[in-house]
Specification:
Blueprint (H helix, E strand, L loop, with lengths): L2 H25 L4 H12 L8 H19 L5 H16 L1 H5 L5 H24 L4 H30 L9
């Protein structure tokens, strides 16, 4: 396998991994109440009812359940959050098809991943989200950054293999 083929394969795999991550993240933004019910059951409140994590999960679950009963239209916001994830995932298909020409997508994704961190700390702080939960939110930016950074590096290397006619060596 030539170097350009290897780079293409790596970029496709990592970009696909990133796309799948975005889709999964979007999908999980829709069934919030049932997800929190599963989480609370998984952490079994009878085992550690006073842990900070358990208290937080129960608080969030109860708030979501009450909101769903009284104001279900508010969940439309998280439906749009999911839609945003799906659309961003679709955009990255351009990087799958032509990673050199669409290298800007990796730059865009890297910037977004970096911005997750101050956003989580600032907005999460304003909303009273515990610091440890904000760190979990920040991890999405960190874990998204890694494959995008690798793809960007590989796309730069791949670009150097392109001859002036736009064909691969």
């Amino acid at each position: 396998m030539s170097r350009d083929q290897l780079l293409h394969k790596r970029i496709r795999w990592m970009t696909g991994f990133f796309i799948v991550g975005l889709v999964i993240s979007g999908v999980t933004a829709i069934p919030l109440v049932s997800e929190l019910n599963l989480l609370v059951k998984a952490f079994d409140p009878s085992v550690a009812p006073s842990s900070e994590l358990m208290q937080w999960l129960v608080l969030v679950r109860d708030a979501l359940a009450q909101t769903q009963l009284q104001h279900p239209f508010l969940f439309y916001g998280t439906d749009w959050l999911a839609f945003g994830h799906f659309i961003i995932a679709l955009v990255f298909i351009g990087a799958l098809r032509d990673p050199v020409r669409n290298r800007w997508l990796f730059d865009f994704g890297l910037i977004a991943c970096v911005l997750v961190i101050p956003y989580a700390f600032i907005i999460g702080g304003l909303r009273g989200i515990p610091i440890w939960w904000r760190l979990i939110d920040c991890s999405f930016g960190v874990f998204g950054f890694i494959p995008l950074w690798l793809c960007r590096q590989w796309a730069i290397e791949l670009e150097k293999l392109v001859v002036p006619t736009g064909r691969w060596k």
